Amino acid sequence: MPVLPIRQLPDPVLRKQAREITELNGDLQRLIDDMTETMYAAPGLGLAAPQVGVLQRLIVFDVSHRDGGPRDLQVVINPCITTREGEVTREEGCLSVADFSAEVKRHARVTVTGLDREGQPLTIKGEGLLAVVLQHEVDHLDGILFIDHISRLKRSLYLRRLKKKAAAR
Ligand code: NI
């Protein structure tokens, strides 16, 4: 199970719409395993397929492991946010957005439906950190990054810094 390279802003693949998954085959199972490995190696709380250059609607996440607890891997194929409630502001970062984090306002509680890796329907009710991770990862499938939820000023300051860094390379 190889660790895959994680695509970095401004890679255009991060801005594209991912496609619905229609076939649960061996390639998909391999992709799930590779994304899982990549997420834990990074380490990150979650990873969406476009972040490894695959435009398919697939996310993996684990919000329990970071405190040194046991792994609790979750895989959702074709995730869809079906309910949204409340409001919460938390600091977010992203494996595809280097050297930057910012406070992002999101819904405090969400319900996500989709399929597990065997193709069985699944429903996840999340609040707190889990709700934030779910919204962040599902956003990736629509080409949305957390920096799209911050002020235009903060975003342009970051993007300018990123451009400068790229030019210096
Ligand atoms: Ni991200």
Give the SSE map:
Elements: H1 26-41, E1 46-48, E2 58-61, E3 74-85, E4 88-94, E5 97-106, E6 109-115, E7 121-127, H2 129-141, H3 152-168
Antiparallel strand pairs: 1-2, 2-3, 3-6, 4-5, 6-7
The structure holds nickel (II) ion.
In short:
This protein is an alpha+beta fold and 169 residues long. The chain contains 3 helices and 7 strands, in the order αβββββββαα. A 5-stranded antiparallel sheet has the order 1-2-3-6-7.
Describe the structure.
- The structure is a single chain.
- With 169 residues, this protein is α+β, with helices and mostly antiparallel strands.
- It has one domain (12-168): Peptide deformylase (Peptide Deformylase).
- The protein has helices at 26-41, 129-141, 152-168, and strands spanning 46-48, 58-61, 74-85, 88-94, 97-106, 109-115, 121-127.
- It has a five-stranded antiparallel β-sheet with strand order 1-2-3-6-7.
- The chain is globular and about 45 Å long.
- The mean pLDDT is 96.
- The structure holds nickel (II) ion.
- Residues 94-96, 136, 140 line the site of nickel (II) ion.
- Nickel (II) ion (NI) binds next to α2.
